[in-house]
Write a sequence for this structure.
């Protein structure tokens, strides 16, 4: 089961990968299946034809971490992916509980390992709209699993990129 939920008593949502009918290849399609939509600051915005024209934003950070946040329009869900060429200890059999800490808001979910060529990392599906809202509204996120190796990502410019992600997705419905 893959889930992201807000760590409060009043709100908990779950996404089942089998129910969605997609696997890692659906959320992490190859670049040749993407059309460049535009750029917002350091974030690229793309339409993923392999993923029912779901839009995504992508940015490579100075430490070599590639972050990808995308929409899954048919499933009314999304995904958060972090990849790095140095993370060779991660493979596709990895599954772990991770915490997405925005400082005053904490989400938790299962992260599934993925390998895209030289890039190793993980992805988490979400169907909680508050996750995307908090991602855009905050300045930093710390992601940490049970291995206790935190990844901190500065979110400067993410709010504008997420707004463009939403515009891109709305345009796909026309």
């Amino acid at each position: 089961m893959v889930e992201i939920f807000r760590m409060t008593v009043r709100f908990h949502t779950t996404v089942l990968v089998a129910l969605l009918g997609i696997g890692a290849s659906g959320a992490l399609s190859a670049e040749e299946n993407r059309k460049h939509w535009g750029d917002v600051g350091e974030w690229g915005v793309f339409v993923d034809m392999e993923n029912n024209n779901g839009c995504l934003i992508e940015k490579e950070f100075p430490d070599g971490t590639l972050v990808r946040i995308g929409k899954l329009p048919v499933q009314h869900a999304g995904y958060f992916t972090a990849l790095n060429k140095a993370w060779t200890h991660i493979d596709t059999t990895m599954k772990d509980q991770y915490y997405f800490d925005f400082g005053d808001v904490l989400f938790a979910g299962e992260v599934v390992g993925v390998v895209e060529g030289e890039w190793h990392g993980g992805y988490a599906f979400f169907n909680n709209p508050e996750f995307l809202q908090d991602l855009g509204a905050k300045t930093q996120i710390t992601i940490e699993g049970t291995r206790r190796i935190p990844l901190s990502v500065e979110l400067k410019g993410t709010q504008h990129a997420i707004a463009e992600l939403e515009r891109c997705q709305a345009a796909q419905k026309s």
Q: What stands out?
A: The first strand starts at residue 4 and ends at 6. Residues 4-127+144-172 form one domain. The chain has one domain: 4-127+144-172.
